[in-house]
Amino acid sequence: MSSTGNVAGGGKKVSWPEVVGLPAGEAKAVILKDKPDADVIFVPFGAGVQQDLSLNRVRVFVGTIASVVTVVLAPKVG
């Protein structure tokens, strides 16, 4: 279930805090289920990113925990 902070004015989901701690591949599957047109981009935690806005892009910040690439911040559209 989505909280209102995770949904844009048009009723479309814009963030996925529920995937924090999941392996990257599982998180991508959850995001694509909610937003099939998403361009999911994995970014190492702490890496710099451009500040441009893309409504189809979802950046997923990941780190390695016990040899598993894991989501460390809530992914969001942008």
Automatic annotation (TrEMBL):
UniProt keyword Cell membrane, yes or no: no
Keywords attached to this entry: Protease inhibitor, Serine protease inhibitor
Annotated signal peptide: none
Top-level taxon in the UniProt lineage: Eukaryota
GO MF term list: serine-type endopeptidase inhibitor activity
A matching Pfam family: potato_inhibit
Gene Ontology biological process terms from the UniProt entry: response to wounding
Record-linked InterPro entries: Prot_inh_pot1 (IPR000864), Prot_inh_pot1_sf (IPR036354)
Protein family according to the UniProt entry: Belongs to the protease inhibitor I13 (potato type I serine protease inhibitor) family.
Listed name of the protein: Subtilisin-chymotrypsin inhibitor-2A
Source organism per UniProt: Triticum turgidum subsp. durum (Durum wheat)
